[in-house]
Write a structure and sequence with these properties.
The protein has twelve helices and ten strands. The chain is of the alpha/beta class. The longest helix is centred in the middle third of the chain and has 21 residues, at about 125-145.
């Protein structure tokens, strides 16, 4: 069989990982099922249910899903698949007593790198093996529930983003080897995998040295796709949720540069990717989020998407679940929150 060249692979569209807050007792509630069912279609390649805590892990807030054998995870996967979209799930963990900042640029942001380095340093070989045992268990649970794409959340300053970065963790080489082994095991089981990364943390001094080496290390792993984000939650959320033209252009440019360095690797571009969907490099696929939150039928009419109200950032505004004001203005949009 002749391998398909990168340039010949069909363009795919992803609904990138999103923590909706639509959970009850750690599992999807009726709102989450309706939310993803309404946004899934044959036009959407994969919907990645976001920020689900792996077994033995720690949530980022009280409204975070926890991977388990609860049948509601199967119900959610089936509702996505029934609309013609591949069900995906993003497995993640923070750490005990983690607190995500509500401000987009918290006052103590400059302390985050030092705290992250100290926290990562507390993870010894035994704890590292436990984390990956939890990742494998969570992956098996996800596969049994019907999810065909599994993503490791190694971005935004959560635990795996620290442990995969040699600048923050002395055991990063071992962690990267574990990630590669996990991805290979998934591939042998017929699962598609991705790893979400942050291009930068938002701390300019830290980002100035070693960022390219970090990005290249992740992009050389046997995961099927690298999902490109940016920013650490407790340093600068403006990089995670880019809205200004300059930040968006930086995100797009850096993603394209990374993709050019690794032409044999597939990448997901997020950050208003809808604006450049027709001009992406052959190994870069659009990852949508806010446009699909605002308008479940956005892929049918790409002129009608996010209006940058900022209301979907529910944790930052002290709410318990995602919400968009467009839902109240247009009857065909879901007002689920």
């Amino acid at each position: 069989m002749v391998a398909t060249r990168i340039s010949e692979r069909p363009r795919r569209t992803f609904f990138v990982g999103l923590n909706t807050g639509y959970v009850k007792d750690g599992a999807p509630d009726e709102r989450m099922v309706a939310f993803y069912e309404e946004r899934s279609s044959a036009r959407l390649s994969c919907a990645i249910v976001g920020n689900v805590v792996l077994p033995g892990g720690h949530p980022v807030n009280s409204m975070t899903g926890m991977m388990s054998s609860d049948r509601r995870w199967k119900t959610l996967a089936a509702s996505i698949a029934a609309q013609g979209t591949m069900p995906g799930i993003q497995l993640a963990t923070a750490w005990e007593n983690y607190e995500g900042a509500t401000s987009f640029r918290p006052k103590n942001w400059a302390e985050t790198i030092a705290k992250s380095r100290a926290l990562a340093g507390s993870v010894g070989p035994t704890r590292l093996r436990q984390l990956f045992a939890g990742l494998h268990t969570g992956t098996e649970m996800a596969a049994e529930a019907g999810y065909r794409h599994v993503q490791l959340h190694a971005a935004h300053g959560y635990l795996f983003s620290l442990l995969t970065d040699r600048r923050l963790y002395d055991g990063a080489a071992d962690c990267l080897e574990f990630v590669g082994s996990w991805a290979q095991t998934c591939r042998e089981a017929g699962l598609e995998t991705s790893v979400r990364i942050s291009l930068r943390t938002g701390d300019a001094d830290f980002d100035r040295v070693g960022a390219t080496t970090y990005q290249d290390g992740i992009s050389s792993l046997p995961a099927d796709i690298v999902d490109v984000s940016s920013g650490f939650y407790n340093i600068d959320k403006r990089l995670i949720y880019p809205s200004t033209r300059s930040v968006l252009c930086d995100r797009h440019r850096e993603t394209f540069e990374l993709a050019a360095r690794h032409p044999g690797t597939q990448f997901i571009l997020s950050g208003k990717a809808s604006g450049v969907m027709d001009d992406l490099p052959p190994n870069v696929h659009p990852g949508l989020c806010r446009d699909l939150i605002a308008n479940p039928t956005f892929l049918d009419d790409r002129s009608d998407g996010c209006k940058n109200s900022g209301k979907c950032h529910y944790h930052s505004r002290g709410a318990r679940s995602v919400w968009c004001p467009i839902w109240d203005q247009t009857p065909r949009h879901s007002g689920l929150a």
